[in-house]
Hints:
Blueprint: H1 8-16, H2 24-34, E1 39-42, H3 49-60, E2 72-75, H4 79-93, E3 100-102, H5 109-117, E4 122-125, H6 127-135, E5 146-149, H7 158-168, E6 175-180, H8 185-188, E7 199-202
Helix pairs in contact: 2-3, 3-4, 6-7
Amino acid sequence: xxxxxxxxxxxxxxxxxxxxxxxxxxxxxxxxxxxxxxxxxxxxxxxxxxxxxxxxxxxxxxxxxxxxxxxxxxxxxxxxxxxxxxxxxxxxxxxxxxxxxxxxxxxxxxxxxxxxxxxxxxxxxxxxxxxxxxxxxxxxxxxxxxxxxxxxxxxxxxxxxxxxxxxxxxxxxxxxxxxxxxxxxxxxxxxxxxxxxxxxxxxxxx
Length: 206
């Protein structure tokens, strides 16, 4: 069964990449993410979580650049994960005008702030750098539509957890999607904060 009801540009890119059939996890999760609800997406490695994150982000942004403020944020554990996510996104948006930005920790925070200010649609960052941007008022969240957390087990770390709690307090009307291999108890506790009324999509096999 092919991917259903995705933006025509996404379907064209899937065809170009010869991705024709969604995984069981993608079939279960993509329609629910498209609904706009806060969601915990739980599935083992190899289930297609990263591709799901990319496709639903592009769908949410309608594959077009708008304004200057980020409309999607992707939070990752570290600099290496950020680079991997950037490369994964690039495969899907290379022929579009969507502006993708990786907040590389090797850059000075003032450089990152100025480059984000020039205009970004999708922002990829670690908690450390994103929190610095928030504290410096270097990222405008007024247009933010979707905030995704990749392999969210890293949020158990105290510094990442605290940064996440501080950042989400200032975000209004945004969909939060948390991806993880397991439904860790500490992740469920976020329901009391920014993951309100969250649904759980759990697929055991890849």
